[in-house]
């Protein structure tokens, strides 16, 4: 009667005990960021695996090392790209790759040589370019280098130099990332945020007011989506847009200073994917609204320029509209002591590649231009906020300069101040450009990875942008759409890496041997002291005596 | 291979108890009942100790050696001795000689102690991928603990079960018993105040347990000779 309940209790206890099993502790647990995994028009690209469970190996590799069952840890600057290229080209299998990025640059460390920074930036750019366009069948993770990793690498090299490669029988370190199988992001959304500053319609005006649009894309794309903060591309553009919106909202709040133009502010998404989001956003407009757009200024990468800014257009520079806009910019830039150059790139309608945001406007026959510090159009998936594009690559002064350039030129155009030497947004006035505002937004954007497929419609960051824009503009609306089918993204962008120090099998066997002999010695000692030596010998002699008895 | 490690450490921790039982005449006289009863008494004692610790001890703010707290812990440690007294004298055992009674009680006591304090950490920790020496040291400690418990049980049986003891030896017996009873406090003092590392502490425990075992053996045989 009592046995079934006790059996149940035992089963429950056993289950409880088993449940405690999974909490194995590790020597170290570190947050790591996975290389992006995506399909482009069906072709698989990026790192195709997420979970990792291999022994750690480090460069320089011991001779004859079999890397297909090891995970290679390498600091960025020690990793020869030729090595990875060779591995990828020959389709050799690697257990896994962990790339250690140098610790975030200490901003106060002004004495850090620019050479070093340039070297890191160059290495990162090259690595990113290589890894983004290849199919890598093993997991690739990025982590930040710190003392723990330095010690780990030193230990691994010491073990390797003793002549044996790391494997199950020689001990060493094991890298374990237990991540679920990466799944497709089901419908990646791009959310465009827009806000209006309506202009002043005079009593006699019957026609619709013209609109000037200011647009910037806020999303990024990079090798490690959890690290793609894109401060310069295009955090700088988004921040500049917010400041311009703030300045003009002050002007437009008073009917006496409200201009005769509507101002449309657009924070678009989907920039790296041929400005797909901008296209969808424009398509969502009523045709009359679109036709009322006089011109659009797109801001892209304006965070690290000193003297020269470029204005990219798709209409020829001789076009009267373009000429007028360029003159506005040139006047202000001369006053500021910087120069603005003009670059013309014709659009090829049959080519799906859209290098600049203004090209999407031009396809809808709206005059547009892009202001950028880049002098030539970026390649596909380049300059979209990669690994090296962190807070240090954008500075608030450049953004401030751009804001001054754009807002002064706009003001001259809207209020007809051409030729007059007036500074609308003068320093120490109530309309002064606020560098703290720019700094704090730039800091925030540099802490927020913004790869569009991983930003849901209701992501708090998008809500924050919407709220900020609604502080300055009216009629704020978020338009969400699905990213075009050419791209498919996979999740599992962040994981926890556990580093375990493991003992080799030989150690366990040796220990078993020692233990066995200890127990045997103990047994014999106890038998001899308590029962006498004869007893010990008798234990081993029993079988023969029985045999004798039987016969 | 980590289950392997777990089995190894488990063998190190619990093997000697089994070996002791099977090697000595305990197995011949079938004293397993006594062992089980002693284990149950140990469980009860452990419970009482826990309650006392919870009631009387404060949670230490810093890691320093607080003499009053340690004195409290020593007093609570004497509950252990009381438990052993109970197991040796009050329980009804089958007809087994003095010699074997203390051994069986000591063995059951030490086995229960090992299981209670060392099985759970072993199960949870030794099966993980990470390798530490911790569980091997724990096993060695269990061995030392077995020897010390046997010595304490021997001295206990001398103190409470044997009526005629040579006068000169009596204070030595009580002194040794006191020393053995306070051994846990001594090791914790070494660990915390003098900051000895685990290998050193385990070595000390081993050495001291062997010394105490030798002394108790001499005392026991001296008392036996006089009878």
Describe the structure.
The complex is a heterodimer of chains A (551) and B (227). With 551 residues, chain A is α/β, with parallel strands linked by helices. In chain A, 38% of the residues lie in helices and 21% in strands. Chain A contains 14 helices and 19 strands. In chain A, the strands form three sheets. Chain A has an eight-stranded mixed sheet with strand order 15-14-16-13-11-12-10-17, with helices on both faces. In chain A, a hairpin with a 2-residue loop joins β2 and β3. Chain A starts with a helix and ends with a helix. The C terminus of chain A is likely disordered. By secondary structure, chain B is mainly α. Chain B has eight helices and no strands. Chain B starts with a helix and ends with a helix. The model of chain B has no long low-confidence stretch (mean pLDDT 81). The chains are: A alpha/beta (551), B mainly alpha (227). At the A-B interface, β19 and α13 of A face α1 and α4 of B.
Structure at a glance:
The complex is a heterodimer of chains A (about 550) and B (about 230). By secondary structure, chain A is an alpha/beta fold.
In angstroms, what separates the terminal alpha carbons of chain B?
55 Å
Sheet-strand content of chain B, in percent, reads under 5%
CA-based shape of chain B:
globular
Give the mean pLDDT of chain B: 81
Index terms:
heterodimer; A: about 550 residues; alpha/beta; 7-stranded mixed beta barrel; 14 helices; 19 strands; about 20% strand; disordered C terminus; B: mainly alpha; 8 helices; globular
